[in-house]
Amino acid sequence: MEISGVVSALIIGLVIGVLGRIALPGRQHIPVWLTIVIGIIAAFVGAAIAKAFGVADTNGIDWIEWLIQIGLAMVGVGFADRAYGRGR
Fold first, then answer.
1. For residue 64, what are the contacts with CB-CB under 8 A and spacing of at least 6?
2. Percent helix, percent strand, percent coil in the chain, to nearest 5
3. Is residue 28 within 8 Å of 58, Cβ to Cβ?
4. 8 Å CB contact between 50 and 62
5. pLDDT, tens digit, 9 for 90 and up, residues 20-35
6. N vs C: which end of the chain shows fewer Cβ within 10 Å?
7. 18 near 37, Cβ under 8 Å?
8. Most distant CA pair in the chain, distance
9. Are 65 and 18 in contact (CB under 8 A)?
10. Which residues touch 65 (CB under 8 Å, ≥6 apart)?
11. Judging by beta carbons within 10 Å of its beta carbon (0-12, 13-18, 19+), is residue 18 exposed, middle or buried?
């Protein structure tokens, strides 16, 4: 993977993480860096799931892939919020 691919993955992960955090109701008590990490993981896993179901490459914007990624980010942020909140 080239440096531009890594930078793109980080930016997409940031966007996915923030969208997942916004879509989750209530206030989350996790740091921003953890939201970004969860977003990056959700972006990669969501892309793999979308590819497995054959919806990763469509004409135009890949809305289904984005929804899968954001949904995974929501689950990840919710889980991390519960786990991180217990440690404090």
1. 50, 55, 58
2. 75, 0, 25
3. no
4. yes
5. 888 888 888 888 888 8
6. C
7. no
8. 46
9. no
10. 46, 47, 50, 55, 56
11. middle
Q: Which residues of 30-44 are buried (b: 16+ CB within 10 A; e: fewer)?
A: beeebbbbbbbbbbb
CB 68 within 8 Å of CB 53? no
Closest CA to 13 of 72, 81, 87, 80: 72
* pTM of structure: 0.81
Q: How would residue 1 be classed by pLDDT, with cut points 50, 70 and 90?
A: low
Residues sharing a CB contact under 8 Å with residue 68, sequence separation 6 or more, in sequence order: 46, 49, 50
65, amino acid identity: E
Place of tokens 């953890």: 34
